[in-house]
Amino acid sequence: LKPFWAPVASAPMEACFGSSQPLWLSRAWSPGASAAAGRLCGSGRWAATIAGLMLLCCAATAAAVGALCTGWGLVLLRSCPSAGPAFADFRTRKVSKMVRTESQDTVNRHTLLQELRDGKRKKEDLVRNVAILQQRRLLTKRDEYNMVIVLLGKLRLWKEAVGMLADMERNGLKPDLCCYNAVLKALQISGKFKESVEMLTEMWAENVLPDEVSYMIIIATFGQAGMWVEALQLLADLEKRGVKASCKPYSAAIVACGRCGQAEKAMQVFDYLPELGLEPDGLTFGAILGVLGKDGDWRGTIDMLRRIREAGLKPDSVHYLAAMNACNRKLRGYEALQLMVDMYKDQVKPDSAVYNLAINTCRKSGLNEQALELFKEMKEEGEERDSRTYSAVMGASRTCKEAVALLADMKVDKVKPDMAVYGSLINTCAREGELDQARSLLGEMKAADLNPDVLIYNTIIRAAHEAQQWGVVGDIFEEMVPNEVRPDVVTYNTLVKTAGDSREWQRALGLLDDMRSQGLKPDLLHYRSLIFLCERCQQFDAALDVYYEMKKASLLPDGKTVESLVRICRKIGRRDLAEEIGNTKVTRSDPRKGSEWKSNARNVRQDREDREERPQDRRPTLSVAIAGIEE
Predict the structure, then answer these.
(1) Per-residue DSSP letters for 437-448?
(2) 13-17, 27-31, 265-269, 505-509 — which one is most confidently predicted on average?
(3) What SS3 class is residue 458?
(4) Neighbours of 208 (CB within 10 A)
(5) CA 280, CA 69: separation in Å to the nearest integer?
(6) Residue 589: its pLDDT value, please?
(7) DSSP character at residue 21
(8) Measured between alpha carbons, how far is 53 from 545 in angstroms, rounded to an integer?
């Protein structure tokens, strides 16, 4: 047997037997052997297939194979290369050392199973234990097989998890529903949706009736793969086969639709539940709230919280977190504050995640005072504060000095500043015109082995431009190249603006060539700034050249750019060109939209036209935070 098994451990089986399946493997055997061989051959496990068929042929061969070869362990060895040395050592022991008594096997069995239950060992050790249990046939109960399948699924060894079903049949145990569901879970962890459907088909063929958990796992697998249509088709198959189900598979379908951005389809599935006589539970409400929160439907989340109360259920922190996420995406600061009030009315204590979202939402909505009030409340409640908390609060700080003082609080809380914290600090200092402090923080970042990104450099360059320190703008720009930070369109737009303020039109036009060399495409704001600069410097021909390049780039000018070009054409006596440009179709979008010319507090405006009337009851600790609701 040694020459036969030697190439199995060192080379793929295709190199030994060829890429096609041997014909003798497809002959008719007993039902158990046929099912085991079919499953193993279908997954390419030739070594385990041959070992299994030999075990069914004669007892002597079974004893020889059990003593001298590793059986399923060879497959585990191929799937987990890191377990190779340990498993090879076990496989190549002398035959005299492998003679064991029944009492020794019993002791080893309990030890190995206990190590698998703990799951604290390394991956190669766990795989080795599974190989030993299989070779010595120490797995005798379905619960033990189920535990091994769950473990293999967590280790992402889905092929070995599927093979455990054949190993059960070889040992005279028929896989039950729990074992099949464990295999389906292993396939979900590895993202094998096709194999999940094949396993579902096998369950029906083997008369192992799938339950709602089986369908829920497969629907979740399709949701992870972004296949929401197939997930809904599985729901139809569940109803067609008459599988008794609760809200679990429907909740999985809602999550699958939400992962694919199909919030409308998810809502249709949710509204379909009453027609089936099913009342949504907390899990279902949490699923639809997560979808609506990801979609930014803050009205839908608030309405869903109302429906939870009407159903006699109590919203929890997960439900409120999804609603807070929707408010954060749509910059609804006042609604986020009202959610905080509702949480205390429902006796739900906000956790750190809810506080972080509420503070960040208020900051982005321009409600800086309310964000600071929430931070103080968070500190009084004893909630854990992390880098995200401090990053949001620093962005809402009134002054640069107040933001920098929060670094001392971070040291007390043992929170290490990260890129987001320094970015928020630098942005606050730049907003207040503290350019020296911003540059000092940039040096601290480098000392802390944090590489500043292009956003941080753009913030400092913008602050230097607003302070009219043209030399500092050039110095910061020159630092980007040695630090391997590639400038973007916003960087060059600020440089063009700086060159325009100092009337360096030739340098500004040179930046256009630099952008092209960097592989960047100038936007409308860049072209417009160049045309305005050329008009101020009376470089009319250069302005028209920029206009032709913009036209070649298929960019439509805005109204102010057209007015500037018409004035230029009239000054040089080109009335025909002025009339042609005046009749040009203009864009209605703001060329500065999406740029970083203004600070977050000025650039973010909250729509207040359709805000509903707020209730009058308030919590004393939030009296300052919600003082502006009626206004």
Answers:
(1) HHHHHHHHHHHT
(2) 265-269
(3) helix
(4) 17
(5) 54
(6) 56
(7) P
(8) 81
Q: How far apart are CA 288 and CA 295, in angstroms?
A: 11
- Tell me which DSSP letter residue 555 carries: -
Q: Residue 311: CA atoms inside 13 Å, Cβ hemisphere, count? A: 17
Distance CA 292, CA 312 (A): 21
- Pair of tokens at residue 381: 């409640």
* Dist. CA 136–CA 63, nearest whole Å: 10
Please report which confidence band the pLDDT of residue 15 belongs to, taking 50, 70 and 90 as the band edges.
very low
Which long-range CB contacts under 8 A does 19-26 form with residues at least 24 apart? 25/49, 25/53
C-beta of residue 345 within 8 angstroms of C-beta of residue 363? no
For residue 77, give both structure tokens. Answer: 């060895």
**What confidence tens digit (pLDDT) does each residue in 193-225 have?**
999 999 999 999 999 999 999 999 999 999 999
Contacts of 45 (CB under 8 A, 6+ apart): 13, 75, 159, 163
Tokens of 37: 């061989």
Task: Identify residue 394 by its one-letter amino acid code.
Answer: M
Closest CA to 421 of 401, 439, 440, 404: 404
Q: How far apart are CA 395 and CA 603, in angstroms?
A: 14
pLDDT at 376 over 50: yes
**Amino acid of residue 168:** M
Structural tokens at position 291:
């979808």
pLDDT at 621 over 70: no
What's the CA gap between 236 and 566, in Å, rounded?
64
Q: Which helix (H) or strand (E) holds 311?
A: none
Place of tokens 């096997």: 105
Task: Return d(Cα 46, Cα 43) in angstroms, integer.
Answer: 9
SS3 of residue 243 by DSSP: coil
Angle at 518 between CA 513 and CA 519, to 5 degrees: 95
Q: What pLDDT score does 44 carry?
A: 45
- Nearest in space to 385 (alpha carbons), one of 393, 329, 365, 327: 393
The tokens describing 159, both together, are 């092929």
- Who's near 233: CB < 8 A, 6+ residues apart? none
Structure tokens at 600: 């977050």
pLDDT value of position 200: 93
SS in 3 state form for 536-605? HCCCHHHHHHHHHHHHHCCCCCCHHHHHHHHHHHHHCCCHHHHHHHHCCCCCCCCCCCCCCCCCHHHHCC
Q: Residue 608: enclosing H or E segment and its boundaries?
A: none
More confident call, 140 vs 628: 140
- CA 3/CA 10 separation, integer angstroms: 12
| Cα distance between residue 402 and residue 376, in whole Å | 14
Name the DSSP class of 615.
P
- Distance CA(520)–CA(332), nearest Å, equals 35
What is the distance between the terminal CA atoms of the chain, rounded to a whole angstrom?
87
Q: Is the pTM of this model over 0.70?
A: no
Q: Are 208 and 201 in contact (CB under 8 A)?
A: no
Share of the chain above pLDDT 70, in %: 76
Residues found in the chain = 631
Cβ-proximal residues to 85 (8 Å cutoff; 6+ apart), any chain: 124
Q: How far is Cα 227 from Cα 482, in angstroms, rounded to an integer?
A: 45
CA angle 589, 594, 598 (to 5 degrees): 110
